[in-house]
Amino acid sequence: MSALTIYLDNEPQYGERYTDFTLIQKQLNSIGVQFERWTANVKLSVDADQAAVLAAYADSIDKLKQQYSFQSIDVIKLTPDHPDNAVFRQKFLAEHIHHDFEVRFFVEGSGLFYLHVEDNVYAVLCEQGDLISVPANTPHWFDMGENPQFTCIRLFTTPDGWVADFTGSEIAKTFPTFDEYVAEL
Hints:
Blueprint: E1 3-8, E2 15-18, H1 21-29, E3 34-37, H2 50-56, H3 58-68, E4 72-78, H4 85-93, E5 96-97, E6 102-117, E7 120-127, E8 130-134, E9 140-143, E10 150-156, E11 165-166, H5 178-184
Antiparallel strand pairs: 1-2, 1-7, 3-8, 4-10, 5-11, 6-7, 6-8, 6-9, 6-10
């Protein structure tokens, strides 16, 4: 189940939670975040490679490519036994911005985006079928949990792909981790 919790940025212990997709979408649209639900054209096997994943979502990807002129698209897949889980997790956990908007589609599994907009923090639990687009220059971080299990399509308007500028803020350390957030649901 997708979920959204909106916190004041100085009160990570209190937040207003939404689980209705339409309400989540409305709240996120109000801060310029695109949030959609996609379905695959074909059923994917558990061991589907990047080409198979991209083919399954080709129609939706093509629409986004036309709309936003994406120049780079890839698929990232992490499982609990991936040898670099801890490295990837730490890379995304620190608050950062991108000069490009960040678009992620969850083919399988889940992950938790935190968006720091003005005095609020929006925790967005994305699950299979969810597409999220974080506007350029929006401070945010991502937690995949201690034992990640997800496959995401990543779309970029620059050929360089994922490039982050870290804010130096320690705010991410004050909010619930992916595992704590999911346990509360």
